[in-house]
Write a structure and sequence with these properties.
InterPro entries: Gal_mutarotase_sf_dom, GH38_beta-1, GH38_C, Glyco_hydro/deAcase_b/a-brl, Glyco_hydro_38_C, Glyco_hydro_38_cen, Glyco_hydro_38_cen_sf, Glyco_hydro_38_N. Belongs to the glycosyl hydrolase 38 family. The termini are far apart. The strands form ten sheets. Strands 25-26-27-28-37-34-33-30-31 form a nine-stranded antiparallel beta sheet, with helices on one face. Strands 11, 13, 14, 17, 38 and 39 form a six-stranded antiparallel beta sheet that branches. By secondary structure, it is of the alpha+beta class. The protein contains 15 helices and 47 strands. Helix 4 packs across helix 10, helix 9 packs antiparallel against helix 10 and helix 10 runs antiparallel to helix 12.
Length: 932
């Protein structure tokens, strides 16, 4: 009989914050690390410790013990402490595609400073795993993934269901995991969880009982004699007597080699014996073939306000700070702020661990998260403003003969991947006086406020002299200040106006300039292009769509390209929820309430050339919460599936105020819904019956539009089939499609109601953490004012051929703008740094690397190859294939700034652009820019 090896890997799965506040966990972390360093020094038999795959642990520990850095470096360099490859152990589905990449990139950068990186794709407790993980890992030279969830049923309190092997995707704990593009890694499932070697007994009698069970459990799933035992668990202290425990085990089981191992040693041994008949699992691992109760997907709707903060923070970094800073650097206007961006990303990612962004911690944790979101956002906004000012200072407005000396120019920036048009609101200073110019601030304010403005005589022109219809508002006097780089702050009083208009055809990753003419003369006045918007008897229309409203506030949306109409959109649904932050559980027999048939007040509140908006108000009443049984059941730790609580008979008001806007060039509706939630223990959703015949749908996920089944697998018994989304969910038949976009609304469900209704969760209010103890979370009831945003796009054909995915991505991206002056400069009034074409491709990153290469990333949403054509409008002499770690690989032919390449099916394509010599990262086209 072949000998077996028991590989014990010591670790402590470190939830940075969870059932206690961050600093409480932080305190325990210092104890853990001090104990670990002492044990490594005192016991040579204690060889290795896996530091949970996240480098932030080092930062947190060194905050308290900076004097231990040198000792840490020694043990890391010696291979006794394994670090990386991530910065934090994130929730993969609730953080964006680029956030997952930055997590891997920054984790590598931090680990590299200590001399070594653990090349294991470590996902011990992620609540499901993204389908593109194998491709991301392979691009980072990682060929093995270790994960705990997504394949075998795993429930609360780390309980792994004892299913027969035929009832989940792989009969073994070892399998191959393949991404949609075909990238494949060896997958290691913690089939007996990541604590199956925890607290190994030293006493022979106890050890015999322990190992008889543990060895049998591991052998049940292992495809080889290399057995993995994870010596640790959540916040588990170091087992300081492990050396003695292993000596006991060796005496009891002479036919088993007990090794204090690490992942490198274990993987080398395993790969020599892996059988040829391992199963290959593909794509997303979301526990599809389980009963559906342990997937933890409803963390996507716990504390939705956190998801909204996160979506905004990610967007400002990915679609604001990074591309605008890159554009400023490429224009020679300002150095790229690598360190500041890394700081902003790290601060944001400190909210990305799975117990943080999932909203499944105690209230103190999530209060602190709000402060981190603010800090990251403020830094991103500072970078954005500095970059906009730097770029604006280079725009040549003096040579535009359509504008006059008294014109007030400004630029509107589009950082989406495609050219777009849309409604923007811009505040302009039309007069300014500094404090030093007047007797006192109050007198200046009065002067500014009394200054006459003839707004009706003004006109907005684009940079080609075309008049643009605009709504003009006088904002009165306002205080402001400047912070010059060479002198003290400069406060002033100003007179401001607001222009609201449609910015047409603003190029991707670029800008277009406009100018306000305070008093247009006969030679410079002209008629604006007529608007396509028009009012209907009970709605509105443009050249693409029309919408009509019913008395109950639901609406019908017609695609004017073929006349197809979607009916009864926008109905709200409220039902009870007696679950917790992890799991939605509707009370037994509870019938959801809806606004169908509830009279609504419908008012036209905006009718401009660029946008029409209706406001719909529902004055509704819903149950105040669950009945008194819920509190009793919570305190008695009655499992959520066995609870008998119902909704209360008491009602509270719920006023839902919805604003539905149609813009002049828009291909769908933009919607904002606000409400003051005074009810507990419930879920609020908005419904979109599609009426389309389809068995599948698409959901925006990490670097893919994942195709998912509308009806779950046969093993699924959970009445709810909620799923994760990033920017959108979409259904189509052979002719028509409907795509619902969102901002930070990460949970949806396609209902099995015969209409393929898309239900998007707007709020889920619960009162406890759940899982292994009793942890009340009253703030998870999300009482108070809430505002959510989403959009509705009808289209012909599927998500890809219609381009609806670009509309949905664009909905999440804000417009940026900056006022400038009449000046000479090196940049034209309309500009983009690159043009590109590629069907089914989405652009996700435009930034500079630490090597000062321009990094551009796309991903192919289709499962077929596509041609990518790129034309660069920036200095460039060399182009390379790159990866998620921003390294140069194969050189690409670059002719006059043009290049072409093939993007494989579902491939993530990254380019590195430089004007430095091949294989020399020491120089680039921005080296000549003076460092700030």
């Amino acid at each position: 009989m072949a000998r077996k090896t028991a590989h014990l890997i010591s670790h402590s799965h470190w939830d940075r914050e969870w059932y206690m506040p961050y600093e409480s966990h932080h305190y325990l972390l210092t104890e853990l690390m001090n104990s670990l360093l002492d044990t490594l020094a005192q016991d040579e038999r204690y060889r290795h410790f896996h530091l949970d795959g996240q480098t932030i642990i080092l930062e947190d520990y060194l905050q308290v013990h900076p004097e231990k850095r040198e000792l840490l470096e020694k043990y890391i360099t010696d291979g006794r402490i394994a670090i990386g490859p991530w910065y934090v152990l994130q929730d993969e589905f609730l953080t964006s595609s680029e956030a997952n990449v930055r997590n891997l990139l920054i984790g590598h950068q931090d680990a590299k400073r200590y001399g070594t990186i653990c090349k294991i794709g470590y996902f011990p407790d992620s609540f499901g795993n993204m389908g593109q993980a194998p491709q991301l890992l392979k691009q980072a030279d990682i060929h093995v993934a270790a994960f705990g969830r997504g394949v075998k049923p795993t429930g609360f309190d780390n309980q792994v269901a004892d299913y027969e092997s035929s009832e989940y995707e792989s009969p073994y704990s070892e399998m191959y995991w393949e991404a949609p593009d075909g990238s494949k890694v060896l997958g290691i499932l913690f089939a007996n969880w990541y604590s199956n070697g925890n607290e190994v007994p030293v006493d022979p009698e106890e050890a015999k009982k322990f190992w008889d069970k543990k060895l049998a459990d591991a052998e049940k799933y292992s495809s080889t004699g290399e057995l993995l035992f994870m010596n640790g668990c959540d916040h588990q202290p170091v087992q300081t007597d492990l050396g003695d425990a292993l000596e006991t085990a060796r005496k009891l089981y002479p036919d088993v080699d007990f090794v204090h191992s690490d992942f490198t040693q274990y993987m080398e041994a395993l790969q020599r014996k892996v059988p040829s008949h391992l199963v290959t699992i593909t794509g997303e691992l979301r526990s599809q073939h389980t009963d559906g109760w342990g997937t933890l997907v409803n963390t996507a709707s716990a504390r939705i306000y956190l998801k909204q903060f996160n979506q905004l923070g990610q967007t400002l970094l990915e679609r604001g700070a990074e591309p605008l800073a890159a554009l400023a650097a490429l224009a020679g206007a300002k150095a790229y702020p690598h360190e500041l961006l890394t700081y902003a990303w790290k601060t944001l990612m400190q909210n990305h661990p799975h117990d943080s962004i999932c909203g499944c911690s105690v209230d103190e944790v999530h209060r602190e998260m709000v402060g981190r979101f603010d800090k990251s956002r403020h830094m991103a906004q500072a970078i954005i403003q500095e970059s906009l000012q730097a770029i604006a200072g280079q725009i040549d407005t003096a040579n535009n003969f359509s504008w006059q000396a008294d014109s007030i120019p400004f630029a509107v920036f589009n950082t989406a991947g495609r050219e777009r048009s849309g409604t923007v609101s811009v505040e302009l200073i039309v007069a300014k006086r500094y404090f030093k110019e007047g007797p006192n601030p109050a007198a200046l304010a009065e002067q500014m406020g009394l200054m006459p403005l003839e707004l009706d005589k003004g006109q907005l022109l684009d940079d080609r002299g075309q008049a643009i219809a605009a709504k003009v508002e006088d904002l009165g006097a306002a205080f402001g200040y400047e912070l010059p780089k060479d002198k003290f702050r400069q406060p002033y009083m100003s007179r401001k106006i607001r222009l609201t208009f449609e910015a047409p055809a603003v190029p991707a990753l670029g800008y277009r300039s406009f100018a306000w003419h305070p008093c247009a003369d006969a030679d410079h006045s002209g008629q604006a292009v007529p608007s396509a918007l028009r009012l209907l008897e009970n709605g509105m229309a443009n050249e693409h769509v029309s919408v009509t409203f019913r008395e109950d506030g639901a609406y019908s949306l017609t695609n004017l390209k073929n006349g197809h109409t979607f009916h009864e959109l926008g109905i709200f649904e409220s039902c009870g929820d007696i679950g917790n932050e992890y799991v939605f559980r509707q009370p037994e027999g509870d019938i959801a309430l809806t606004t169908r048939g509830v009279p609504a007040k419908i008012t036209l509140v905006e009718n401009e050339a660029c946008r029409i908006t209706y406001e719909i108000v529902h004055d509704w009443a819903i149950p105040a919460g669950a009945d008194e049984r819920l509190e009793i059941e919570r305190n008695a730790m009655v499992p959520f599936r066995l609870r008998q609580a119902q909704r209360s008979n008491q009602r509270v008001p719920l006023r839902i105020k919805t604003r539905i806007s149609l813009e002049n060039s828009a291909q769908g509706l933009s919607v904002s819904t606000s409400f003051d939630n005074q009810a507990k223990d419930h879920r609020l959703r908005v419904l979109f019956p599609t009426g389309l015949e389809s068995t599948t749908h698409y959901a925006d996920s990490i670097f893919e539009a994942a195709q998912r089944n509308n009806v779950p697998a046969a093993e699924w018994i959970n009445p709810s089939n909620a799923q994760h989304q990033q920017a959108f969910v979409s259904i189509n038949d052979e002719v028509n499609g409907l795509t619902i976009a969102n901002k930070g609304l990460n949970e949806y469900e396609v209902l099995r109601d015969g209409k393929n209704t898309i239900a998007v969760t707007l709020l889920r209010a619960v009162g406890e953490l759940g899982d292994w103890g009793v942890f009340p979370t009253p703030e998870a009831q999300c009482l108070g004012e809430q505002t959510v945003e989403y959009a509705v796009f009808p289209h012909l054909g599927d998500l890809f051929e219609s381009g609806a995915y670009e509309q949905a991505y664009g909905f999440q991206i804000p417009w940026f703008h900056i006022q400038t002056g009449i000046q000479f400069g090196s940049l034209p009034t309309t500009y983009t740094p690159l043009s590109w074409q590629g069907d089914g491709l989405a652009l996700s990153a435009f930034k500079l690397s630490e090597q000062k290469d321009l990094i551009i990333r796309w991903y192919n949403l289709r499962h077929q190859s596509a041609k990518l054509d790129v034309e660069l409008h920036v200095p460039s002499s060399a182009a390379y294939r790159s990866d998620v770690l921003e390294r140069r690989h194969d050189g690409l032919a670059l002719h006059g700034g043009r290049l072409s390449l093939e993007a494989g099916k579902a491939e993530i394509v990254t380019l590195a652009i430089s004007d430095s010599p091949e294989n020399d990262n020491s120089n680039s086209f921005i080296d000549s820019i003076k460092e700030d």
